[in-house]
Structure formats: C-alpha cells, structure tokens
C-alpha cells in the first residue's frame, strides 16, 4: 500500500476549514484540544467513523490475526493463507464451487484464492484484488514478533498489518457478512486473493490469473485495496485518495567500451570518462511535462487544501496548457516533480577491470518511471539524444508492463464519494497517481480499469509498509471493515 505525501503545512485553522460546520476561527481551547489529539497514539481522530456490528468487527480482527500469523514471505508462498480464507468463506456459507484455490504450474506454494459472489447478472462483474504475500521481516530490528499480531497502545503490530492483510481480512469478513444478510448484488462480485505481488514475484497471482484463468476473474472493473485510502495530518482527516494511475517501471543499461591498456599510458578514449560525461548530460535533462486527467484533478484538489505559494502554482499547472513557469517552480519539490514528468535516474554504475589498467568497459543502470501515456520508445530516444554519444549503447532490460491511466470518471468518483462520505462526511476526495506500482499494472495492462480504494486512515508521514514495526491503528482497522462492507455493496450495484 502506498500513499502520496504532500508538502502542505496547513495550520490548525486551515485544517479545520476542511470540516464542514467547523468555525474558521479556532479558539485557544480548540488548539489545545487538537494538540492533545496529535499526541494520541492510536491513529484515529475526534470524528470517528461508524463501525461494523461487534461480532463482525471481532471476526475481522480474528481473520487479520490468522493471516498475519501465517508467514507468506516469498520463500513460504501464500497457499496456506489462501486456504485459511477458503475455510472462512466455506464456513460463512459460500459453496465449494464458488471458492477456488489455484496455483501456477510449477509453483504449488503460490496459491491464489478466487471467490465469486453471484449477483443478478446485470452488467460485467466487479473484481476486487488483494495480495496475500508480504515482504521479509528482519526479526532483530523489530520490537515485536513480526509474525504475531501484537496489540499495543491502540495499534496492531505485525508484518502485513497495513500491507495488506488488513484489506484481505476486511474483504473476507465483508463477503461473509453480506452472505449472512442474504444480500444479492446486481452483478457478480469476484474477489481474488493473490500471490507474489512483493519482492521476488516470480509467480505473480494476478498475472497468472489474467493469462491462464481469465474465466475466473474477467470483469468490467477492478478495485484494489492495496492503495488509496485516507490521509491524516496531525491527527485530523485530511483527504481521501483514490488511486487511478501509476507510473510504469522501465530500466535501461548503458554500456560503452574503450581499447584499455596500461594504466601508465592514458589516452583520449576512456570508457569511464565517456560514460561519466553522458551521465552528467542525463543529470541535467528533464523530460517534458505530462499532465493526465488524474494529475490535473489531483493538483486542482491539492491547490484547495494548500495554503502557501504552491497553491496558485498547482492551479496553474492544472490548466491546459500548463503554465511552464509554475511547472518549473513545483519541479523543485522532489515528489511534485515526479507527478509532473517521466523521470530517469542512474542507480548503478560499474567500470574497469583492474586498478592499474585502462578500462575496457563501463556500465550504468538507468531506472525510469514513465508517466501514463508516455512510451518506452519515446523515453529511449530521449535518453539516446541526451547522452549524445553514439558509443554509449542503450539497451532495454525487460519489456515494461505498461500501465495506462484508469480515468477518474464521474461514475467512479460518485461511487467512491458515496461510500467515503457515508463513513466520513465532508472529507475531500482526490484521485492520485502513484509513482510506485502495484498489481494494478497487471490489470490495467490487460485492459481492465482499476482503482485503489483502501479504507484505512493513516498519517501522511507514516510509512512502515515493508519496514520495521509495521502497524495499523486498531480503530482505523475497525472502521475499514465497515467501509469495505459498504464498498462491496456499492460496487456490486448496477449503474
Ligand atoms: Zn501491498
């Protein structure tokens, strides 16, 4: 799960402006009360959202505990977790034919669970995806056992607690609750709990299902609980983000050679210097600005939340065509720069073969993140032109999984607003582009519009996913369970 972080230093007064009905003028008492909340350890705010009935809340917590305590790192695989969810769903009244565990040939431990909640057949199904695997945890670095769900100070600690066994547990419980209530969606709701999204993903479940078992998961729309969600700023609900696009990951190798020779007899042709000169030109190059439907909406909404000089600049880049002076100023902020253009950066370099010999070869790795709508061919030709040295060879490491934008259509934004505002009235909702990637790249690449809509609120500055002491606020988790239930119902409705 990822979240964009912004650089908005809103004062208490500005934050309060976001909440309807709150006075603009904030009394000293309110400021003190807010500061007290900032210190509240458990990640929820003064305006709590509704919760599921107590037994459902408890069931979701039990499922979260069960999933966290099954080690699903790359070497163990996700089969045991897939089967745990399968048992839960069968016990919750799903038929065996509706709950299928499948693994790619040669990877029996990389099990994926697909459940189909049958609807009335109005429209193409909606597919929910959630990965079951987690990244490794270095036990010595943790204050808790990463593979036990530990409760402390209002938090649940454990690997996968926020990325993303929380979403898997909330989704599983919601399906069980809906089944118990006799709910019938207008269209089929499919949920796929999958393997190998994280490091080492050589048996990516979504890719496997799309390629070999499209029959199980074919849908008109995809909802991913691995991204999106609520951002808290100083303990207040700041905004809710809907992930509608991601940058595309693409890597190149640069290589150049020279005659070599004795280190005592340097001449003009040296692979290391040639490569270094090319890299220096690349450092100075900026790709042209690309504004997508998502980033335009994103800048517009962030401008409304922002109080400083960035606010008018954000509005100016959201215009057609964008104001290039404003682009220039915002590009000085690393994270905003990444929202404005494709980026390429040197990440690895090597060269030479001996301390006392002239180099025969030098290499560099260039890691690029392409804007949706940009193309690998365009990026490669920009690299070649910028390096401006025909003796530096540019090769593509692997074909990228091109991830087009899923536009923030009024239909999608209305649906998500209905659910989000039923839980947390009045919070701003912003479509976002992630600079990293998730399994959305698989579904979007396969032509399925995909949206990230997790239900967890966390601090914009908190990012422990993949890190030590990964955690989720217990209250935030409980609210996400009710949110997910409402989301499944909303997405199951024909439009
Ligand atoms: Zn994740």
Quick overview:
The chain has helices at residues 12-17, 28-39, 54-68, 79-91, 165-180, 205-212, 214-217, 271-283, 293-305, 310-317, 324-330, 334-340, 376-387, 410-423, 440-445, 474-492, and strands spanning 99-102, 112-117, 126-131, 150-152, 155-157, 189-194, 221-224, 229-233, 236-246, 248-257, 261-262, 343-351, 357-358, 361-370, 393-396, 429-434, 450-452, 457-459, 471-473.
Structure description:
The protein is of the alpha/beta class and 495 residues long. It contains 16 helices and 19 strands. Strands 1-2-6-3-7-17 form a six-stranded mixed beta sheet. A hairpin with a 2-residue loop joins β4 and β5 (155-157). α10 (310-317) crosses α11 (324-330). Residues 1-44 have low confidence and may be disordered. Bound molecules: zinc ion. Zinc ion binds next to loops.
């Amino acid at each position: 799960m990822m979240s964009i972080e912004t650089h908005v230093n809103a004062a208490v007064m500005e934050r309060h402006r976001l909440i309807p009905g709150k006075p603009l003028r904030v009394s000293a008492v309110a400021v003190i009360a807010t500061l007290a909340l900032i210190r509240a350890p458990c990640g929820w705010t003064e305006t709590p959202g509704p919760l599921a009935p107590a037994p459902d809340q408890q069931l979701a917590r039990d499922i979260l505990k069960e999933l966290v305590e099954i080690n699903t790192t790359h070497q163990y695989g996700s089969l045991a977790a897939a089967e745990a969810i399968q048992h839960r769903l069968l016990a919750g009244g799903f038929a065996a034919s509706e709950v299928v565990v499948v693994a790619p040939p040669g990877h029996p431990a990389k099990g994926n669970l697909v459940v189909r909640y049958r609807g009335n057949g109005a429209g193409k199904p909606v597919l929910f995806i959630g990965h079951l695997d987690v990244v490794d945890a270095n036990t010595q670095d943790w204050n808790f056992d990463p593979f036990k769900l530990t409760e402390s100070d209002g938090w649940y600690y454990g690997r996968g607690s926020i990325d993303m066994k929380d979403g898997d547990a909330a989704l599983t419980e919601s399906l069980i609750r809906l089944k118990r209530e006799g709910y019938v969606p207008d269209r089929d709701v499919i949920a796929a709990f999958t393997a190998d999204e994280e490091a080492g993903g050589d048996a990516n479940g979504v890719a496997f299902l799309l390629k070999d078992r499209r029959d199980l998961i074919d849908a008109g729309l995809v909802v991913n609980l691995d991204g999106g969600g609520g951002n808290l700023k100083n303990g207040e609900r700041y905004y809710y983000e809907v992930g509608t696009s991601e940058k595309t990951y693409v890597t190149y190798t640069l290589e150049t050679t020279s005659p070599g020779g004795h280190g005592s007899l340097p001449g003009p042709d040296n692979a290391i210097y040639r490569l270094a000169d090319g890299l220096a030109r690349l450092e100075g190059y900026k790709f042209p600005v690309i504004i997508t439907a998502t980033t335009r909406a994103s800048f517009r909404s962030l401008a409304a939340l922002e109080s400083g000089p960035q606010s008018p600049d954000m509005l100016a880049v959201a215009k057609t065509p964008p104001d290039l002076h404003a682009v220039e100023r915002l590009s000085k902020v690393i994270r905003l720069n990444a929202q404005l253009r494709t980026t390429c950066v040197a990440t690895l370099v090597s060269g030479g073969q001996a301390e006392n010999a002239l180099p025969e070869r030098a290499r560099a790795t260039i890691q690029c993140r392409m804007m949706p709508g940009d193309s690998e061919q365009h990026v490669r030709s920009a690299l070649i032109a910028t390096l401006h040295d025909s003796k530096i060879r540019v090769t593509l490491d692997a074909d990228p999984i091109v991830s087009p934008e899923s536009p923030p259509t009024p239909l999608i934004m209305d649906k998500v607003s209905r659910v989000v505002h039923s839980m947390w009235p009045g919070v701003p909702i912003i479509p976002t582009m992630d600079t990293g990637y998730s399994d959305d790249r698989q579904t979007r690449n396969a032509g399925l519009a995909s949206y990230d809509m997790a239900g967890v609120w966390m601090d914009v500055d908190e990012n422990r996913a993949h890190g030590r002491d990964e955690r989720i606020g217990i209250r935030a988790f409980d609210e996400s369970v009710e949110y997910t239930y409402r989301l499944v119902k909303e997405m199951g409705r024909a439009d």
